Amino acid sequence: MTKPTDTDRTQLESSPERALRMAHHLLRIGAVSLSPSQPFTWASGRLSPVYCDNRLTLGYPNVRSDIAAGFEAILHEQDIPCDVVIGTATAGIPHAAWLADRLDVPMAYVRGAAKAHGRGNQIEGLAPEGAHAVVIEDLVSTGMSSTAVLAPLSERGVKVEAVLAIFTYGLPSADDAFEKAGVPLFTLSNFSALVEAASSTGSLSEAEVDSLRSWYENPSQWSQDRGGA
């Protein structure tokens, strides 16, 4: 596996062209919404000018095909070995299946917790001991849910080479989570590409772009300044 050259970051950007193209996809289908003047409230109570629901990608064949192709391209570009594709429950499961189909390898997914009945499985599908795996996620915010799947896979003897995601907010907390986990994150698009794509359509004013960049630099302060957590 080719090791990342930037040892200070574990969230590694896709090619600029791919990131911008995917950002346009997500904006066009409404999977990502930007609203600096009327921010969204996250489950944590924090206010944010951006909201992402990548489950909408499932309804657009050209978008989901581009996602799978992008993931496959990253694997080839980074020389990442992949014997099995692992989806996160639930949003990563379909994209993991489409990538596994392209690669002609087994696929599995990890539950949030082991089942309370039957065999008590937490890992479903085929994830054999000793396999080199990539984990597929739809969205990375803090990185906690994405890295939570790594422990059960490690206990199974599966070597996770990388996590691949459609989109990341690029928050420092995610850098910390993936650095602690010792696994790199590669994404098809990111917040910077999203702002660039939205700006190119003329849908954002200069003040709104500045507000988005201010949020990116300090999400907690941005939220608190507007009465959020």
What does the model show?
With 229 residues, this protein is of the alpha/beta class. The chain has one domain (11-225): Rossmann fold. Helix content is 41%, strand content 22%. The chain has helices spanning 16-28, 61-77, 92-103, 144-148, 150-156, 172-181, 191-200, 206-217, 219-225; strands at residues 11-13, 32-34, 40-41, 47-48, 50-52, 84-88, 107-110, 123-125, 132-140, 159-168, 185-190. The chain has a seven-stranded mixed β-sheet. It has a two-stranded antiparallel sheet with strand order 2-5. The chain has a two-stranded antiparallel ribbon with strand order 3-4. Strand 6, helix 3 (92-103) and strand 7 (107-110) form a beta-alpha-beta unit. The termini are far apart.
Number of domains: 1
Q: What shape does the CA trace take?
A: globular
- What is the gyration radius calculated from CA atoms? 18 Å
Portion of residues within helices: 40-55%
Number of strands: 11
Instruction: Spell out the helices and strands N to C.
Output: EHEEEEHEHEEEHHEHEHHH
Tally of individual helices: 9
- The poorly predicted ranges are 1-9
* CATH class descriptor: Alpha Beta
Task: Tell me the CATH topology.
Answer: Rossmann fold
Query: What is the CA-CA span between the terminal residues?
Result: 40 Å
Largest sheet data:
7 strands, mixed
As a percent range, the share of strand residues is: 15-25%
| CATH architecture type | 3-Layer(aba) Sandwich
- pLDDT average, as an integer? 90
Indicate the structural class.
alpha/beta
Strand order of the largest sheet: 1-11-10-9-6-7-8
